[in-house]
């Protein structure tokens, strides 16, 4: 018969097991705490980014430039002049007419191109109510969106701009999103053709980009703006 005292775990071994358990518990706790902190920081950073984009959007809406026919540009960070020292010198400043810019960084044709809420192009057509010409520029932020989402957003946009002269300017070949830009360019070209809307493809343009390989330099804005201006109806 086995004696009961033979089954007892040595006290030193028991203390070691407890120490290991406590250490593992503490480590797991620290990891979880770190995840929460990182998540909170990411959330705060995202909220801060959206707040900045909204402020830039409001500022650009107030800055109407030029004279002549009323032109409204609905677009993304390129139209806003994101990362430029003087955003007012972004590409829309190269267009003829009295130009008003309704641009929201990160937005696009599809509803979920931006994670900042309801800021897709179709939600901002009210700005164009009395415009003589509406220029809709973008597609780079739709680079990872499915065709159905881009088509749905495009259809809503066109429906809300019914009765206006509209020109759609597709995405340029920004190196950071080149494959997606090419795909969206094909989609927008076909959708515009089906809707009877003028489409300007910029996918073959060679433009100078900032180090982020996504946004234009000031020279790039000049080139892009002059390109768009040449393709607008008289």
UniProtKB/TrEMBL annotation:
Pfam families, per the entry: Lipase_GDSL_2 (PF13472)
InterPro entries documented for this protein: SGNH_hydro, SGNH_hydro_sf
Residue ranges annotated for the SGNH hydrolase-type esterase domain, each copy included: 73-222
SUPFAM superfamilies named among the record's database cross-references: SGNH hydrolase
Gene3D superfamilies the record matches: SGNH hydrolase
Protein name according to UniProt: SGNH hydrolase-type esterase domain-containing protein
Organism whose genome encodes this protein: Nocardioides panacihumi
């Amino acid at each position: 018969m086995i004696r009961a005292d033979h089954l007892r775990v040595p006290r030193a071994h028991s203390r070691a097991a407890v120490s290991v358990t406590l250490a593992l518990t503490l480590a797991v706790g620290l990891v979880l705490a770190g995840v929460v902190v990182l998540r909170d920081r990411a959330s705060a950073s995202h909220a801060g980014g959206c707040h900045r984009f909204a402020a830039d959007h409001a500022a650009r809406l107030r800055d109407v430039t030029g004279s002549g026919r009323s032109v409204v540009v609905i677009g993304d960070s390129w139209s806003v002049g994101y990362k430029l020292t003087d955003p007012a010198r972004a590409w829309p400043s190269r267009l003829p007419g009295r130009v008003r810019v309704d641009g929201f960084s990160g937005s696009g044709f599809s509803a979920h191109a931006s994670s900042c809420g309801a800021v897709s192009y179709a939600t901002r057509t009210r700005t164009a109510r009395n415009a003589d010409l509406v220029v809709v520029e973008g597609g780079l932020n739709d680079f990872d969106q499915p065709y159905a989402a881009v088509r749905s957003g495009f259809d809503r946009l066109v429906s809300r701009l019914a009765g206006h002269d509209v020109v759609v300017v597709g995405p340029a070949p920004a190196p950071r999103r080149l494959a997606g830009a090419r795909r969206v360019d094909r989609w927008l070209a076909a959708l515009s053709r089906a809707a009877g809307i003028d489409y300007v493809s910029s996918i073959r343009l060679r433009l100078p980009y900032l180090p982020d390989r996504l946004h234009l330099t000031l020279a790039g804005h000049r080139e892009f703006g002059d390109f768009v201006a040449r393709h607008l109806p008289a």
